[in-house]
Amino acid sequence: MKILLLAGEESGVIYANALKASVSLRGAEIRGYDTYGFKTEDLAVFGFLAVLKRIFFFLRVKRTLERAIDEWRPDAVCTIDYPGMNLKLAAYAKKRGIRTVHVVCPQVWAWKAGRIPKIEAALDRLCCFFPFEPRLFKPGFATFVGHPLAASFGAAQATEAGLVAALPGSRLGEIERHLPLMLAALKNVKGARRIVVPAANGRAEAAIRRIVAANPAADRDVVVQRGGARDVLQRAECAVVASGTATLEAALARCPTVLVYKVDPLLAWFLRHAITGVKHVGLANIIWEKAGGEGAEPMPELLQEDFTPVAVARWLNMWLSDPAARQAAVSRLDSAVRLLEGDTCAVDRIAAILKERTTDGLP
Q: For the whole model, what pTM was predicted?
């Protein structure tokens, strides 16, 4: 059986590599275009205008992958996240009689629910990481497989006293908007002895080092490192993290975290009107919300004008100075992320779905 894996961004590459290593797929011939042969930082853009500025680049990426599908003729195409590009490639493959499986449900529960018929038309199966997602689609189409990250976090590690993690995001625009405010907040966090800022890639690392050099966090040790976010979050006493997959990793590490995010005013206005299906933006909070959560949210959210150094410092100071408050935050995170645990290993379940034979003559 020939399987083509298509990712696009860093998080998708992690899942693609796990599938390649899966014992369940031994014997299959697998090819992976993890980031399509392009740099992840070139693919990681956010917002309509950012995509429009690079439209010819993305058209070239699409044509490159379509040729790969035509030339290799896989039995199955497995697309992973990155729906703007990957669902188009899945539709292209399905029209050519190739079985299509997509991993990570597009966030139709938050916005643009009208995409559901197109998603169902482009795919044979959809693998969902959140338990509330399958019921949004036709019966038998979507399956909750558990979240791969849930099994990858081991037993809780001993925390390092005074260690604070700061994750401003992986895109350059996110780093430019978020990191100066994070560093300004950390100047006023008395218990922060050491601050670690993990970078997703080389371009992000260079931007982070430049901003840190221009905005020293008082007399505290600021460490910039390539990768290692998961380990840092497991050892940190608390964290400030930009909205995205990293906030889910923080939740799985049971690290008390204040979630932050800021975009330009025009995009913020659009998102306020477009996102109608949820009240939160953090994945841990959305899981808690969809499960009918009561009381305080697992992860406080500071968005747009609410994201200020003073507000961030208030949360971090509380967790560093009050063990009971920190433990309460840990307990709320634990209750939320336990909902992500499936009956079997998520990667093995995805592999089993990939190997399924359809009843309509497809491989």
A: 0.77
Neighbouring C-beta atoms of residue 288, cutoff 10 Å: 25
Verify that 297 and 172 share a domain, yes or no: yes
Together in a domain, 46 and 62:
yes
Query: What does the pLDDT read at residue 235?
Result: 95
Domain check: are 249 and 346 in the same one? no
- Whether residues 234 and 203 fall in one domain: yes
Structure tokens at 226: 């390539």
For the chain, which ranges sit under pLDDT 50? 358-363
- Helix ranges (H only) for the chain are 10-21, 40-43, 48-53, 55-72, 83-95, 116-122, 148-152, 172-186, 202-214, 229-235, 245-252, 265-274, 283-290, 309-321, 323-337, 346-355
pLDDT digits (tens, 9 = 90+) for 99-141: 999 999 998 988 788 899 999 999 999 999 999 999 999 999 9
Question: Would you say 44 and 29 are in contact if contact means Cβ atoms under 8 Å apart?
Answer: no
Reported as a single tens digit per residue, the pLDDT across 186-211 is 999 999 999 999 998 899 999 999 99
Residues contacting 159, CB < 8 A, separation 6+: 235, 236, 237
Q: What is the CATH number of the domain that holds 167?
A: 3.40.50.2000
Does 315 share its domain with 347? Answer: no
Rounded CA separation 142/154 (Å): 28
Q: Which domain holds residue 317?
A: 163-340
Contact 263, 315 (CB under 8 A): no
CA–CA distance, 227 with 202 (Å, rounded to integer): 10
Q: Identify the pLDDT of residue 360.
A: 44
